[in-house]
Structure formats: C-alpha cells, structure tokens
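Following the same procedure, sequence and fold were stored together, as reproduced here:

>
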Amino acid sequence: MAEPSRLQEEAWHASLPGVVVSAAALIGDGADRVLLVKPNYRNHWHLPGGICEFGEAPHVACRREVGEELGLEVPVGEMLAVDWIGAESRYGEGARPHIHFVFHGGTLADTSGIVLQAEELDDWRFVPVGQVGEYLPGRAVPRVTAAVGARQDGFARYVAAPRR
C-alpha cells in the first residue's frame, strides 16, 4: 500500500470538523459563593472567561480572559469540568459544537483589584452556589454545578446533558 502524500494528509486534516473552545475560571470567595460577570452584550451572567484564540490552550485562554475581563492575575488550577454542547441550529447551517473548560481559579478574598473591562462587562458579583441558576442561562447551570462539585471532592466532571 502506498504512503499517503502530504497533499492528501492536508486535505484530510482540512476536512475534519471544527469546534469552538472556551475556558472559564471558577473563583470563590471562601463563603460558598462564586464570581460571576455580566457581559454588556448578553442578558445573562456567566463565569469569567471566554473563547480560546486559534491554537491557544484552554488554561492559557482562561488566564488571559480573566486578566482582560477583571484585571486580575488568578492562579489557573486544575480543570474542574468540561461541557460539550452540540451545534445549535440558532447559529445557522455552519454552526459548530462548543467545548467549555472550567478551571479552578482559587479564592479571592480581596476584590479591590477588580477592574472591569468596560468594552465587554457591566458588572460582577459573588453569588451563592445555590442561586447561580437565577443568573446563568439554563445550559450553563450543569457546567457550573459540576465545577463546584469537582472543587469540593477533587474529581473532574464531564457534562454532556441533552440539549434542545
């Protein structure tokens, strides 16, 4: 059997499906609350973080995004949860699946260093774990709940709940 040519390998690789990758930090305050941010371009809140740049590792994107959004350098610890969301039809025919990584962002006792990125964020707050569902979109609640559980027991979670 003949060895595949470089052109064949490139064509094969280019034909593979792509995914959107994002990374966020679960930052606590030591009182069973998690830090959420309110983007100015959405009606709901979420964990600080964002989309990975092309070729950027999720843990690196997490550190970068938290720095950009909040002006903080937080330790990006272990991965707590990974959430798979299949392609959503609301994004059209070319929609791609999305993989969300959540990393342990430590505990923030002093919030005086928080400087919101005015271009993207309107607000931040610590929210009791039991109330995150009042702030987050429904599809993000299992991801954050899983990350909180992983932070407590040390076992990372994979979330792939059925989506609408």
